[in-house]
Amino acid sequence: MKKLMMLTICLILSGAVATYAQETKAEINATSDAGIMAFNELVHDYGEVPEGPMAEYDFVFKNKGKKPIVINKAVGSCGCTVAAWDHEPVLPGKKGKIHVTYNTLQRPGPISKQVTVMSDASEPVIVLQIKGNVKFKVMGMVTNK
């Protein structure tokens, strides 16, 4: 019984500590004068796209903070999703973009991929998402006569 009581107390305390840590981080970010990445959208739906050509999209953001934003890394959730960006700092009040390319070749069916963007902005990690559906490409039959 004592062990159960101790375990319960430990769980409650660890939950309280985790909650406090998250609140403290949010307060630091809110008062920071770091850059703020304000994206037009975090999710882009390609809709129906044909199999074969690359599906591309630019996630545009504005720096609404007081300091420049430097993007350190932007990584797709798999090798079929690639992110590119201008490696120059995005100054306050200016716009930047993350260019996302999805390779549709031999990937018919639903698309649901993420790009994780890491920067020195007030929110250091932002996850962008692409979705849609790749239409199966019907190949012509080859016959020998």
Automatic annotation (TrEMBL):
Keywords: Signal. Residues 1-21 form the signal peptide. It comes from the Bacteria. It holds the Pfam family DUF1573. InterPro entries: DUF1573 (IPR011467), Ig-like_fold (IPR013783). PANTHER family: LIPOPROTEIN-RELATED, SIGNAL PEPTIDE PROTEIN. This is DUF1573 domain-containing protein. The lineage of its organism: Bacteria, Pseudomonadati, Bacteroidota, Chitinophagia, Chitinophagales.
